[in-house]
Design brief:
Elements lengths: L2 H8 L5 H37 L4 H33 L5 H16 L1 H23 L1 H7 L2 H23 L3 E7 L4 E7 L3 H39 L5 H43 L10 H29 L1 H10 L6
Antiparallel strand pairs: 1-2
Helix pairs in contact: 2-3, 2-10, 2-11, 3-4, 3-5, 3-7, 3-10, 5-6, 5-7, 5-8, 5-9, 8-9, 9-10, 10-11
């Protein structure tokens, strides 16, 4: 093995210099810009869904999802701002620099909760729509909007309770960064094992559940499309039924696209977990620590993208959303 190959392996595939450039790109440009867009998009969503009325389960759940996504984008923005403050503005200042580091670490931990709520709400939305396809008459009676809200609140409360249990023992300590010989604030005494188990179990359960729901809903969409094609030249009653099927199909399309975006944007997190299990050195202290850090930045970006992109899905596939959007923001729908 020559020296260049040995050096390449020692650097863990990504050199420290390359990682420094990518850290600037993600932490100072991509992540804060996406977080700002996510915050603005979800403020719009919250206003529009509130104006639409929260009497039906679909609108209610999208309203909750918009709130949690907005909170997630906000925490990501705080993470980015605090990172900029302690790495670019308050370098070597002391107190303000340490405060910014504490805010940075605390914001990352706080972000676990809105991410959990978003995942829980997305699962509820997808599962309820699958039940509407499988047993449409019984769902309207059994799975009411209030019961859906109760499920979301119950699981979100459990998530909050666990996160408080895992994070409450933490404390901030000032240590010396061995790489730069500068002071560094760390949060210690966190229950990392429990946090890792919780994160992995909930992510895999949510991921698999939503994939199954997307498959079922996609099959339903295909059947609905075939039914509408056969009904185009039949009686008026059949035409009315076809229009009802069309409205239902638009709701399903909205849920399917929201679910697909969720799946795609959570793939990096699932991949990181699997690689960490298979490659022992893929960790914050292993040979591939630079690749691990880069993958975590990519994961954070995709999580915020997931919280940002739903506004476009709502606009293009939800007619009521589009009409209300125009009414709220001063345009007349055509």
């Amino acid at each position: 093995m020559d020296n260049s190959t040995a050096g390449f392996i020692a650097q863990g595939l990504i050199s420290d210099k390359t990682l420094a450039y990518l850290t600037v790109l993600f932490s100072l440009v991509l992540n804060p810009a996406t977080a700002v867009l996510g915050f603005c998009a979800n403020v719009i969503n919250v206003v529009v869904f509130y104006k639409m009325g929260l009497t039906d389960g679909v609108t209610q759940n999208f309203f909750i999802l918009s709130i949690s996504d907005g909170c997630l984008a906000t925490t990501s923005l705080i993470v980015s701002v605090s990172y900029i403050l302690y790495t670019k503005v308050y370098v070597g200042v002391g107190g303000p620099e340490y405060t910014a580091q504490v805010v940075y670490n605390a914001s990352i931990l706080v972000g676990f909760f809105p991410h959990s709520v978003s995942m829980i709400t997305t699962i509820v939305i997808a599962v309820v729509r699958c039940l509407c396809v499988a047993i449409p008459l019984r769902v309207k009676i059994l799975v009411t909007a209030r019961r859906q809200l109760a499920v979301i609140l119950a699981f979100s409360s459990c998530a909050a309770g666990f996160l408080i249990f895992a994070f409450s023992p933490s404390r901030a300590v000032l240590v010396e960064n061995p790489l730069t010989n500068t002071p560094l604030v760390l949060l210690v005494d966190l229950k990392w094992l429990q946090i890792t188990i919780y994160s992995n179990v909930t992510s895999y359960i949510g991921f698999i559940t939503i994939i199954i729901c997307v498959i079922i809903l996609s099959i339903s969409l295909n059947r609905s499309s075939n039914f509408r094609e056969k009904s185009t030249s039949t009686s008026a009653s059949a035409g009315e039924q076809a229009r009802d099927k069309g409205r239902e199909a638009r709701v399903i399309k909205t849920v399917v696209f929201v679910s697909i975006v969720f799946i795609l944007c959570n793939l990096p997190g699932i991949a990181i977990t699997l690689i960490g299990l298979l490659v022992k050195e893929f960790s914050s202290v292993g040979i591939y620590r630079n690749a691990n850090l880069l993958s975590l930045m990519i994961m954070e970006l995709f999580i915020v993208i997931n919280a940002t992109g739903n506004v476009f899905i709502y606009y293009f596939f939800n007619t009521r959303y589009r009409i209300t959007f125009y009414a709220v923001f001063g345009k007349q729908s055509k």
